[in-house]
Amino acid sequence: MNVPHFMLKEIHQQPDVIRHQLDRTISIGIPDRINILACGTSLNAGLIGQFLFEQIAQIPTQVRSSSESLSAPLLETPNTITIAITQSGETADTIAALQQVQSKRVAITNGIDSTITRFADHTIYTNAGEEKSVAATKTFTSQIVLFYKLAFQIAHENQKLSDREFASHLESLKQIPQQMEKLLNENTIVELAQTLKETRDLIILGSGINTAIAVEGALKLKEATYTHAEGYAAGEFLHGPIALLDAEIPTLAIVTEDDSRIQKTIDRIRAHGNHVIEITAKSVPELFSPFLAVVALQLLAYHLATLRGIDVDRPRNIAKYLTT
Ligand code: BG6
Q1: How far is 139 from 39, CA to CA, in rounded Å?
Q2: Distance from C-alpha of 218 to C-alpha of 222, rounded to nearest angstrom
Q3: Range with the poorest average pLDDT among 142-151, 284-293, 302-311, 315-324
Q4: Which of 76, 232, 255, 315 is within CB 3.0–4.6 Å of 80 for a Cys-Cys bond?
Q5: What whole-number percentage of the chain has pLDDT above 90?
Q6: Kind and range of the H or E element at 148?
Q7: Both 186 and 158 in a single domain?
Q8: Distance from the CA of 87 to the center of ligand 1, in angstroms?
């Protein structure tokens, strides 16, 4: 595919990145607790992991920013597994945080033979291929697809998912690349970017598993477009932050087929005369909707950045990863 920027090329590689993960069987045993350490986009992937490990596999899971965990380490039990997630495998804070850990250490990384692998008992590679754009896209998808597979595997071994449910979940994952390709071929996000060209502040709402996607979408918009975007859980947004809204601040809401909770917040925002744009991910069950919602927000960040003339592959002030 001939595309002008690595970010767009890498967004379009995501269906294949998922396809390559589908036939893998990965297992980390059955811990009694999971701790996740990461930074930036990898940290947001960690939030998806937490949701899946808790809701599907029913394993208590904590996520902490690597830098925070250096002064406030997560509690460990003898059967805890700590997962350090870093696309580069070179982020200094994540490496240092993993080194502090006493429990079994698993690294999830895209960096073959990267430094993090030296401090892990077990490494799972995301196999997304090199990501050149500073803003992470396909590596995020490759991280979350691994979390889906790990959570389903633990839940199956743990008897929280029956054979039938396990097979059906894996089948739903198989449908994602095709659904993603449909979305990648649509023009609606380009049109949305045009309407938001002058927007300096933006709210993104999700609920359930898509709260993490709202936060990740806001990070992508900050990194690539310098928009002051904030991601919130829809219900929580009503408890204070809604005071921010005026005619200048639009809200994007991730709406899924099975999720009626977000509607209440949308109705409240509209009742105050403020603008809500719905990003719908209704063609797949809610559990799998993050894959589509995140692609929509990545595309929005990309198109908004290019409309604003930003060098999208090399945004100001940030590096691909921080080694100090
Ligand atoms: C930051 C980058 O410095 O590092 C983010 O600007 C990235 O985009 C973060 O998500 C974490 O990187 P890694 O390689 O540990 O996943």
Answers
A1: 13
A2: 6
A3: 315-324
A4: 76
A5: 93
A6: helix 138-157
A7: no
A8: 7
Same domain? 158 vs 208? no
- Does residue 1 surpass a pLDDT of 70? no
What average pLDDT score do residues 68-96 get? 97
**Distance between CA 58 and CA 134 in Å, rounded?**
34
Please state the atom number of ligand 1 nearest to the C-alpha of residue 111.
Answer: 14
Pocket test for ligand 1, best of 140, 320, 324 (most atoms within 8 A of CB): 320
Q: What is the mean pLDDT of the chain?
A: 96
Question: Where in the sequence is the domain holding 209, given as residue range(s)?
Answer: 181-307
The three-state secondary structure class of 144 is helix
pLDDT 10s digits, 248-273: 999 999 999 876 789 999 999 999 99
Q: Is the CB of 66 under 6 A from ligand 1?
A: no
Which ligand 1 atom lies nearest to the CA of residue 94?
A: 15
Query: Does ligand 1 have an atom closer than 6 angstroms to the CB of 92?
Result: no
- Count Cα neighbours of 243 within 13 Å in the Cβ-side half-sphere: 3
pLDDT tens, residue by residue, 137-191: 999 999 999 999 999 999 999 999 999 999 999 999 999 999 999 999 999 999 9
212 in a structural domain: yes
ipTM topping 0.90: yes
CA of 133 to the centre of ligand 1 (A): 11
Same domain membership, residue 95 and residue 13:
yes
Q: Where are the beta strands (DSSP E) in 166-222?
A: 201-206
Determine the distance from the C-alpha atom of residue 47 to the mean position of all C-alpha atoms in its chain, rounded to a whole number: 7
CA of 322, closest atom in ligand 1: 3
Atom 15 of ligand 1, nearest CA residue = 86
